[in-house]
Design goal:
The chain is α/β, with parallel strands linked by helices. It is built from eleven helices and ten strands. The strands form two sheets. It has a six-stranded mixed β-sheet, sandwiched between helices. Helix 4 packs parallel to helix 7. The longest helix is centred in the C-terminal third of the chain and has 14 residues.
Length: 245
């Protein structure tokens, strides 16, 4: 196996991030393996969203190194980071409510016209988007908006997808549809780093996991190991995954 295939796709070493007077990330260290899905878990306020935004360059790391595909990206502007093959789906979804579903995807296709085969692949996950192709995105349901936000991120092939709480506030049936879509997406060449509070989704999708507390990584390993250890879950997260089926 080539050396670069064994190396993690993304790694953070000693990353600190300040927002105003607040010291949010306090020496974050963890790696995201190539392929599959890494869950970033932790209590509210632990620093998970700040971690994603720092990786994306939306907030600048005060110190530390962020390596992506062998290159340091910690000081790059957000557009340059995106051009390297990283897409970000924020908790707010980031769609354009006044534009149609089609227009949202056209804007997200940075390299040119929409690829019809890629669209068919997306519609296989999210058939509602094909149905509402010419509908303003603001008129979609919450679940459909999340589907559109994810589709915008993958309308072109990406190396890494950063996703912040995709199931938040959604009905169980929609959550199950998203789990199925992410399960299929995991079979592609796209690596995923996901923040998630729904532990059923975390258990179902996660291959590896990093747990944050107070701006630091306090545990990293296989998701299956964490899912099987109720005492470890309670110590790290304050509750057992069994409570959230």
């Amino acid at each position: 196996m080539p050396e670069d295939a064994r190396a993690p796709l993304l790694s953070l070493r000693g990353v600190h991030t300040h927002i105003g007077h607040y010291h949010i990330l306090q020496g974050v260290d963890f790696a995201v393996p190539r392929g599959g899905l890494t869950m970033l878990l932790g209590r509210n306020g632990a620093g998970k969203t700040t971690t994603l935004r720092t990786i994306m360059g939306l907030w600048q790391a005060s110190s530390g190194a962020i390596a992506f595909d062998g290159a340091d990206i910690a000081r790059l502007p957000t557009p340059a980071i995106a051009e390297r093959g990283i897409a970000y789906v924020p908790e707010s979804m980031g769609i354009f409510a006044g534009l149609t579903v089609k227009e949202n995807l056209v804007l997200a296709a940075r390299s040119g016209p929409l690829d019809s085969a890629r669209l068919d692949w997306i519609f296989g996950f999210f058939p509602a988007l094909k149905k509402f192709w010419f509908l303003p995105a603001g008129q979609l349901s919450g679940g459909q908006k999340q589907m559109l936000a994810i589709s915008r991120a993958v309308v072109e092939p990406r190396k890494l997808l950063l996703i912040d709480e995709p199931t938040k506030g959604l009905a169980p049936t929609i959550i199950n549809s998203l789990i199925q879509a992410f399960t299929e997406l995991k079979k592609t060449d796209t690596t995923i780093l996901m923040v998630e509070q729904n532990f059923h989704a975390a258990r179902s999708l996660g291959d590896s996991v990093a747990v944050m507390d107070s701006g630091r990584i306090v545990h990293a390993g296989a998701m299956a190991q964490l899912a099987a250890d109720a005492a470890l879950q309670t110590r790290l997260l304050g509750l057992s995954l069994e409570v959230h089926q």
